[in-house]
Design goal:
Penicillin V Acylase, Chain A; 9 helices; Secernin-2; cysteine-type exopeptidase activity; dipeptidase activity; disordered N terminus; alpha+beta; Peptidase_C69
Length: about 425
């Protein structure tokens, strides 16, 4: 079987830390979404909803059966597609995905994107484990495939996922319709653009081992090491680079073991020396997310999103699930309806301007910061101060020092973005 080597660079990194690796009784989740540098990432909220039996839902390329009830979700996603690179739901579940290439051929036919599976898992899972079961069931039924970039030349990959909630985390890795999952009970874990599950498999596709034997990849004797058996014999350059990022991320987590905070994960996501924060001509970190998931169910989960590229020059803004969430059009990209080049077949024959208001203002601010002028330096300091205020408010909220009314919580994300835009102007 010819091994598929994709044509373009890519990278992403997900992190999770659980007690006793964290400084408090909370789970910390984080992800950088590294995508084509001209791609806009938006942050969008969808309320919980109920559906009648037989309803279908249109994902990026295909329709699937809708569930009777979906949970409220907040997503950070490439603005051209239905799914998401990362997000959270009202029950404190967080999910992020990574692209990988394995011995299984990628699906040329349009099916579910890994990003569609992220959203579907969040909409339907009340826990990380339940979301993992949702994703694997949909994967086995519909498969994964279709281009993952807004370009005429197809760019296709399989996916790994990191799922977390208030009590545990799961790593889910796939090869076509086959999959294996590892349960994370404590400590810290990261994933990158490579298979990383070895022999510690808590759940798997019912025919995973039979398939590996039938392909001649595993003799059936000895331990079953998923990563060794399903990884490509000759890795593409980008996956070799992912090994270095994966090791660097693991080392950064180990350096802070026992003291990991939300700021720790934000710092890791901003680390350019390791390659975790990508800032190149064709590829960059287009969006970032960090979440605090307290183990005490009486405390709120707090999710931070940049909604702009390069976390080293962006502000993490806090979001909390409450009733009557305030819409935030400043971080939502314009809609093009049936005229969207994504929806026309053949797809991606032209491009549209998907920049939202915050993205536009941030672009102008970054240009100013890059000049090194005094005004740019002051702007960078103002951004850092704004983020610090949000972090301090979150800490006091979790410590019981700040009691915000539901209306104030609903406006929290909106107010931070509105303030950021005013600073830029």
């Amino acid at each position: 079987m010819a091994e598929h080597i994709p044509p373009a660079p890519s990278s992403c990194d997900c992190f999770v830390a659980l007690p006793p690796a964290t400084a408090s009784q909370a789970v910390i989740f984080g992800k950088n979404s590294d995508r084509p540098s001209n791609e806009v990432q938006e942050v969008v909220y969808f309320p919980a909803a109920a559906y009648s039996s037989g309803t279908k839902v249109q994902c990026t390329y295909i329709e699937v059966d809708q569930t009777e009830k979906t949970h409220a979700i907040i997503l950070s996603r490439p603005a051209w597609l239905w799914g998401a690179e990362m997000g959270a739901n009202e029950h404190g579940v967080c999910i992020g995905n990574e692209g990988v290439w394995t011995k299984e051929p990628v699906g040329e036919e349009e099916a579910l994107l890994g990003m569609d599976l992220v959203r579907l898992g969040l909409e339907r899972g009340r826990s990380a484990h339940e979301a993992m079961q949702v994703i694997t069931a949909l994967l086995e039924r519909y498969g994964q495939g279709g281009s993952c970039k807004e370009e005429p030349t197809p760019f296709i990959y399989h996916n790994t996922f990191l799922l977390a909630d208030r009590t545990e985390a799961w790593v889910l890795e796939t090869a076509g319709r086959y999959w294996a999952a590892e349960k994370i009970r404590e400590g810290a874990r990261n994933i990158s653009n490579q298979l990383s599950i070895g022999t510690d498999i808590a759940a798997e596709h019912v025919k995973l081992r039979h398939h590996a034997q039938s392909q001649g990849w595993w003799s059936g004797d000895g331990e079953f090491n998923f990563a060794e058996i399903f990884s490509l014999t000759h890795q593409p350059v980008r996956m070799e680079a992912a090994k270095a990022r994966y090791c660097a991320g693991r080392e950064l987590l180990q350096q802070h073991a026992g003291h990991i905070t939300v700021e720790t994960i934000m710092g890791i996501l901003r680390d350019k020396a390791s390659g975790i924060c990508v800032d190149s001509e064709g590829f960059c970190t287009t969006g970032s997310m960090v979440s605090i998931l307290p183990q005490d169910p009486a405390l709120p989960c707090i999710h931070f999103f940049t909604a702009t590229p390069d976390p080293s020059r962006s502000v993490f803004k806090p979001f909390v699930f409450v009733a009557n969430i305030t819409p935030v059009p400043q971080v939502r990209s314009p809609s093009f309806g049936a005229e969207d080049p994504v929806k026309k077949v053949p797809r991606f024959q032209s491009r549209v301007d998907r920049r939202h208001e915050l993205y536009r203002e941030h672009q102008a601010a970054v240009k100013l910061m890059q000049t090194g002028q005094e005004q740019g330096q002051k702007l960078q300091q103002t951004m850092q101060d704004l983020e610090r205020q949000g972090l301090e408010a979150a800490k006091e909220m979790l410590a019981g020092g700040i009691t915000l009314e539901p209306e104030e919580l609903a406006d929290l994300f909106f107010d931070c973005i509105d303030t950021e835009i005013k600073f830029y102007k």
